Amino acid sequence: MSWEDNLRKISPYVAGEQPKIKGRIIKLNTNECPYPPSPDVARALKELDPSDLRLYPDPEYTDIRLALSEVYSVPSNRIFVGVGSDDVLATSFMAFFNGQRPVVFPDVTYSFYRVWCGLFRVPYRLIPLDSDLKIDPDDYKGEWGGILFPNPNAPTGVLMGLDRVEELVKSHPECVVICDEAYIDFGGESALSLTDRYENLLVVQTTSKSRSLAGLRVGWAFGSEKLISCLSDVRNSFNSYTMNRPAIACSAAAIRDVESLKRNTGMVIKTRERIASALSEMGFDMPESSANFVFCGRKGTSAQDLFKALRNDGIFVRYFPGDRTGERLRVSIGTDEDMDEFLKFLGNYKGD
Amino acid sequence: MSWEDNLRKISPYVAGEQPKIKGRIIKLNTNECPYPPSPDVARALKELDPSDLRLYPDPEYTDIRLALSEVYSVPSNRIFVGVGSDDVLATSFMAFFNGQRPVVFPDVTYSFYRVWCGLFRVPYRLIPLDSDLKIDPDDYKGEWGGILFPNPNAPTGVLMGLDRVEELVKSHPECVVICDEAYIDFGGESALSLTDRYENLLVVQTTSKSRSLAGLRVGWAFGSEKLISCLSDVRNSFNSYTMNRPAIACSAAAIRDVESLKRNTGMVIKTRERIASALSEMGFDMPESSANFVFCGRKGTSAQDLFKALRNDGIFVRYFPGDRTGERLRVSIGTDEDMDEFLKFLGNYKGD
């Protein structure tokens, strides 16, 4: 018997590359917002008293919950906050997916879902997207241990309408349904309003994308009191203080500044529409995106080769090998200048 | 079948109160350092560019690992960093305690250990401290799924000598041994040097206490490459980016400022010795503390009543109900002024 026998063997999630190379880099690979966060974040950062860092942060991160409560009109006991939406989702796996039945999610989706199933030993089943790369609620018939999907979906960018989300939640009272809305601010309608009526619906959002705060690691969930209280119990059994003082102060400030959110997402959406048209004109095909990225591919062009060629030129996009995903690239929407460089590269690209 | 059937039922850890009352508060209940962190923390905070917050943080938190590597002369692939030592310990439970045999730890110790066993469904057994409230390695004979103890122990403050730690690690090649050194800088000798020789030893430390950064949530582990790589795999299967940009910048700065660490811990130790003498003179009994708190009780004085009376006067200390713990109070070492107020209160205290 050796200590090595008890180590956990797992295949971790592989995040998009955070390039450390020198020289020109156009970073369109991890769906960050190209614009700086709300100026109120700078102010909150400046107002932080470094000597207060000696004290533990508020374990109930009251400031963040108050800000969310004000902006989204949700009582603060129906809000849970974590270290980015990944932390919220991981905690949800522990909190909600403890049955024998498999948890289900789309075959083409956020690849971390599978990793969490592996880590927490949760059985799962993949439900294929339809031929238009859409989630069809009819394909989810049956009784499950949980249902989980991003809306808009990633890496497709495809939005499911609120009526269809409701259909899914309503027809699955046997399990918790998680609507992962990391990209909802780029053109979708949130399922938040449904959490008033469906106790088993959890809606997860983040400051990382639309609020330009990927570097701060703050995400949250809206849900019924029961779901939120279960999440909090799990969190308090893992780490009592997850949100540090800078994260609390800066994210609360960013959440309250709804104008900056609208302005930044508006600019991203405008650029996205322009790029989608330009890509179509160049023969690229992509599902309509409601996110801050497009998922584009072209018949006769190897996505993997294009990915490598772009990378060699300092343009980082995301390539997901695999059956349907491997035909396309996921390209985050950057500034107009960044995107023009990307288009210029494509215009000159001849393949191998 | 209802969604509620799959919720996880657990009893979370209860942290020391973070008082929100107005008026005079003397906070001696969560072992925070009474002195501000290194001035380099203020500098690092000021130098943070808020617009960089739009980008994900370095997932390998290179700056923190480099700082630790420099200060402790440990290669950076033998360092793991988390959101406080609680996050490091929780991740260690998932990474290392996956066998059938029980994990063992002292009966009087950090109460979070039991909570993690509950959360991760790890079987455990408590090994009683000896009559002097000491950990005796001879009591750990047998083969276990893991061994875990704070050194100095909490809430006793009692330090185990390095030779005895080595004895324990050496005689248990069947499991990972975790030496939780949250309080080591207040007078103990770290087991770090042993990690060169024992692949199954993990040494966990934190910036929360001795570096006055409880509000920043940064802790780490030193261990063999194998242990660290397993921890990283688990972390990357839970949340790719746990350390936000302010945490990385500020903790790296604090770790490098060894002078501030020495000065602050020196002041705390000096106050602790004075308070220990004063308490003894007042008839209180306590094991010799090598931490930033004392664990004191007095025959004929109800610890619970004293706890309540102190709280009514705005003096917060920690009371742990239970067999041996309930006879004493854990009192964090504050400034000399704070401690004089505490002593003054005791001098006037008559009981109920």
| Radius of gyration of CA atoms of chain A, rounded to a whole number | 21 Å
Mean pLDDT of chain A: 96
Element pattern of chain A in H and E: EHHEHEHEEHEEEHHHEHEEH
- The dominant shape of chain A is globular
* Biggest protein-protein contact in the assembly: A-B, 87 and 87 residues
Helix/strand class of chain A? alpha/beta
Number of helices of chain A: 10
Topology overview:
The structure is a homodimer of 352-residue chains.
Chain A: E1 26-27, H1 39-47, H2 62-72, E2 79-82, H3 84-96, E3 103-106, H4 112-120, E4 124-127, E5 146-150, H5 162-170, E6 177-180, E7 201-206, E8 219-222, H6 225-236, H7 245-256, H8 258-281, E9 293-296, H9 303-312, E10 315-316, E11 329-332, H10 336-348
Parallel strand pairs in A: 1-10, 3-4, 3-5, 5-6, 6-7
Antiparallel strand pairs in A: 2-8, 7-8, 9-11
Helix pairs in contact in A: 1-7, 2-7, 3-4, 3-6
Structure description:
2 copies of one chain form a homodimer. The first copy, chain A, is of the alpha/beta class. Chain A folds into 2 domains: 17-36 and 259-348, Aspartate Aminotransferase, domain 1 (Alpha-Beta Complex), CATH 3.90.1150.10; 39-256, Type I PLP-dependent aspartate aminotransferase-like (Major domain) (Aspartate Aminotransferase, domain 2, 3-Layer(aba) Sandwich), CATH 3.40.640.10. Chain A is 35% helix and 12% strand. Chain A has 10 helices and 11 strands. In chain A, helix 1 (39-47) runs antiparallel to helix 7 (245-256) and helix 3 packs across helix 4 (112-120). At the A-B interface, helix 1, helix 3, helix 4, helix 6 and helix 7 of A face helix 1, helix 3, helix 4, helix 6 and helix 7 of B.
